[in-house]
Predict the 3D structure of the following.
Amino acid sequence: MSPAKKIIIAIDGYASTGKSTLAKSLAGKLGYGYIDTGAMYRATTLFFQRHKVDFDDLAAIQKSIYSIKIQFRPSEFGNRTFLNGEDVEEEIRTMKVSEKVSEVAAIPLVRRSMVAQQQEMGTERGIVMDGRDIGTVVFRDAELKLFLTANPMVRLKRRFDELTAKGHQINEEEVKHNLEHRDHIDSTRDDSPLRKAEDAIELDNSELTPEEQLEIALRYAKQRIGSN
Ligand code: CDP
């Protein structure tokens, strides 16, 4: 029997719609790699903040973008994000980064560099990648594209609970504003705005448990793998 063909699974959607939860568990079930593209934009934002790179200074961005090396390394608790060799997994999830990441992600020079790295990571297929433009730009040929949605109250609660569980001192209003603000910038930017790919399957997970959404996604994935 020939080995099962490996596919690319693209998961896109608005902020805090459960993309990474699904992507991680799906990758685990299929024995695929998982790429959190949001973490790459977050790590880039952290780099610019630390090095005081002005987001309007294209010459400075051009100069520094190629000195940003982002890697994912597995750990006991899942993948961790490394920026130039330093584990920045915790720091990139702080509000300080969340407040600026969508501005940084709207810069075409930044997108060009990230997209090239993401395409490189997927050359052998067998990956689940989540983000905003995976099905529309990064892997337009992905065999399975999912577009996650959830109602705003559910999304807010999930993100608030996730951050407070990690010990972040935040209030709900701040989180709500951040989700709305990022969704607005992400869906109205000129370069690869967030939108559902025509061939993506929309999945509203407001009423689904993580296990239920995984089961649905796995069914689609197995169909695609089997039909290749
Ligand atoms: O908070 P959440 O997990 O929903 O977001 P994320 O996946 O960590 O992404 C953080 C931000 O990075 C987004 O709000 C977008 O501005 C940007 N992003 C993007 O522009 N394109 C991607 N493929 C992934 C993220």
User: Anything to note?
Assistant: The domain at 8-222 is CATH 3.40.50.300 (Rossmann fold). The chain is about 50% helix and 15% strand. The beta strands are 8-13, 33-36, 70-75, 78-83, 86-87, 127-131, 144-149, 201-204. The longest strand covers residues 8-13.
